[in-house]
């Protein structure tokens, strides 16, 4: 069992506060709850009760704003060239985020010697053809390809969209604590491949060779074969690729208080976590706030990839990518909070993938070109009124 840091019981309260954070707001109707937090939502924190919405800034200078990107305009080389590859969007020494829009069968096999790859399938169906066997994919799938695995992707059609999280450290499942071994998903739901030789003979270049394109130290180099390197007829062990769909994850919730997003982490290393916010009823207890308070997540950058649905009635384009750098306030626009409080919204249909990283994410020039410049206050102004 992994030892957890001891919980701090040294708490003080000064002035006007809610006795139970996130509940009983009617006791302080004119104040906004704002959370300052360390180590995600697991470390020490403070709740501040302030007069104004902390996201209601009049204007911001560069690097003081939440970042918003249009994922639909990103064009990795694999969108138009079968010999192409994914596009890197963000990176730090621990993790990098890529997009692939592969439209045709690969003319090579891939092998990443720099880290594990976690593919999230936003659009498209097809097959990951791995040396452990084929893994069919569909939207909502996570496909985990361990470091060193040789594979190629065979899309069923030209429209595919993958978000790829590349991890230097071994990527495993997040610690689920005392929930039991079958929650929030049953490990029996993992799809684990069985070896199968590729009868199509894919993965060849124009000269008829089978290249294996190896990514090492951030660069690409290739080994060439006269036979298909995906030629495994059997395997055994505890290191293998697999897939699981977000529909197989059953979100943890409480009817009486909002559970912070970090409880929805599915994969984790010591330096980042990956999870999804998924459809579920909202908290219904009369005194419960069905959303997180305004907060500053001081030890994490928060990257979000919008897969499907709406953000509590706010329309967001699929494949929108946002990054909230540490130290910046964020939270739901006030009009949406009021709609929810009046029970005009009692369910969330949002499907959003998050990647929270301990070290700051550095955007590449390619993703900067896809940046949308509307900032938070503009989103708020465009939010429909509270329907009074
Ligand atoms: Fe957050």
Automatic annotation (TrEMBL):
CDD domains per UniProt: cupin_RmlC-like
Keywords: Dioxygenase, Iron, Metal-binding, Oxidoreductase
Cofactor: Fe cation
Domain Homogentisate 1,2-dioxygenase N-terminal: 96-245
Coiled-coil spans in chain: none
Database matches in SUPFAM superfamilies: RmlC-like cupins
Source species, domain of life: Bacteria
Record-linked PANTHER family: HOMOGENTISATE 1,2-DIOXYGENASE (PTHR11056)
Similarity comment: Belongs to the homogentisate dioxygenase family.
Protein name: Homogentisate 1,2-dioxygenase
Source species taxonomy: Bacteria, Bacillati, Actinomycetota, Actinomycetes, Kitasatosporales
């Amino acid at each position: 069992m992994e030892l957890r840091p001891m919980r701090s019981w040294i708490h003080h309260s000064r002035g006007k506060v809610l006795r139970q954070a996130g509940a009983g707001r009617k006791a302080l109707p004119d104040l906004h709850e704002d959370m300052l937090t360390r180590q995600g939502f697991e470390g020490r924190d403070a709740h501040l009760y302030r007069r104004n919405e902390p996201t209601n800034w009049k204007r911001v200078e560069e690097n003081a704003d939440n970042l918003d990107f249009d994922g639909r305009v990103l064009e990795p080389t694999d969108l138009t060239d079968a010999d192409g590859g994914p596009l890197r969007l963000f990176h730090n020494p621990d993790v990098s985020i890529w997009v692939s829009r592969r439209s045709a069968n690969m003319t090579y096999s891939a092998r990443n010697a720099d880290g594990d790859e976690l593919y999230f399938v936003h659009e498209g169906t097809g097959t990951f053809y791995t040396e452990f066997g084929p893994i069919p994919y569909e939207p909502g799938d996570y496909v985990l390809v361990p470091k060193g695995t040789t594979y190629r992707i065979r899309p069923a059609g030209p429209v595919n969209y993958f978000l790829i999280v590349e991890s230097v450290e071994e990527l495993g499942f997040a610690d689920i604590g005392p929930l039991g071994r079958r929650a929030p998903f049953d490990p029996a739901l993992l799809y684990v491949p069985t070896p199968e030789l590729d009868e199509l003979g894919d993965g060849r270049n124009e000269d008829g060779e089978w290249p294996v394109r190896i990514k090492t130290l951030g660069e690409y180099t290739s080994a060439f074969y006269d036979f298909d390197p995906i030629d495994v007829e059997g395997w055994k062990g505890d290191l293998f690729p697999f897939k699981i769909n977000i529909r197989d994850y059953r979100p943890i919730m409480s009817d009486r208080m909002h559970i912070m997003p970090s409880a929805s982490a599915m994969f984790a290393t010591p330096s980042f976590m990956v999870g999804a916010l998924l459809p579920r009823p909202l908290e219904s207890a009369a005194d419960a706030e069905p959303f997180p308070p305004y907060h500053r997540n001081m030890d994490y950058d928060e990257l979000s990839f919008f897969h499907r649905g709406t953000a509590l009635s706010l329309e967001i384009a699929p494949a929108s990518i946002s990054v909230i750098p540490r130290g910046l306030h964020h939270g739901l626009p006030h009009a949406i909070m009021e709609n929810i409080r009046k029970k005009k919204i009692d369910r969330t249909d949002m499907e959003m993938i998050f990647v929270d990283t301990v070290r700051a994410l550095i955007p590449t020039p390619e993703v900067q070109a896809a940046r949308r410049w509307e900032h938070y206050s503009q989103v708020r102004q465009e939010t429909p009124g509270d329907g009074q």
